[in-house]
Design goal:
about 210 residues, alpha+beta, Hemagglutinin Ectodomain, Chain B, Nucleotide Exchange Factor Grpe, Chain A, domain 2, 2 domains, three-stranded mixed beta sheet, 3 helices
Length: about 210
């Protein structure tokens, strides 16, 4: 008897098998999902949650502000005291520097005074030429001392009048000097390190007589 295969039965069995495989796959996926959920960390109910900070009362806020103001006041007073001490130290240092500068200037000047005293003691000397020579040496010594300190005389006679250096006392006619040129120095002026400390008092030429009428 020939062997026959029923196609419908065969196809039906295959379809049923595929459906079972799909069901098995879904079941497997659900089990894996459930297992994954079980492995997740569960919150520990025994852990204490951090308590929320208590809200301060108006009285507490006021006290905190008072404490902060007091701290700022103390800090300000400390800074003020430090600054006051700093000013006092600077003032003492300035006075010390000024005193030292005075000593450095006066000490060499005393030698000039000594020489003047010697010259006065010998003023009764019958040799006037010797007295004059001694006086000239003292004068030269004093000029060198002033120069060392940065004091220089201001040039005047024969120079053009400069209001930044000279003070015009009078104007005179002059055949030797043209108008605006200093013809005479009445009081010598001086500069201290390029700063005028005394203006030269001078007479200024206004040109030759009758020059202004031509």
């Amino acid at each position: 008897m020939p062997f026959r295969i029923n196609c419908e039965d065969f196809m039906g069995d295959s379809k049923e098998k595929k459906e079972k495989d799909v069901v098995n796959e879904d079941t497997k996926a659900e089990k894996e999902e459930i297992a994954g959920e079980d492995t997740e960390e569960k919150p520990d109910d025994n852990l204490e949650t951090e308590p929320e900070p208590e809200e301060k009362t108006p009285e507490q806020i006021i006290e905190d502000l008072k404490a902060e103001i007091k701290e700022q006041e103390d800090r300000y007073l400390r800074l003020f005291a430090e600054f006051d001490n700093y000013k006092k130290r600077n003032a003492r240092l300035y006075e010390s520097l000024v005193q030292s500068a005075r000593e450095n200037f006066v000490l060499p000047l005393l030698e000039v005074v000594d020489n003047f005293e010697r010259a006065l003691e010998s003023s009764d000397n019958p040799d006037p030429k010797r007295f004059q020579e001694g006086t000239r040496l003292i004068y030269q010594q004093l000029k060198e001392l002033l120069k060392k300190e940065g004091v220089e005389p201001i040039e005047a006679v024969g120079r053009e009048f400069n209001p930044n250096l000279h003070e015009a006392m009078i104007q005179v006619e002059s055949d030797e000097y043209p108008e605006g040129i200093i013809v005479e120095e009445m009081t010598r002026g001086y500069k201290l390190k390029e700063k005028v400390i005394r203006f030269s008092r001078v007479a200024v030429s206004k040109g030759q007589a009758g020059q202004g009428n031509t």
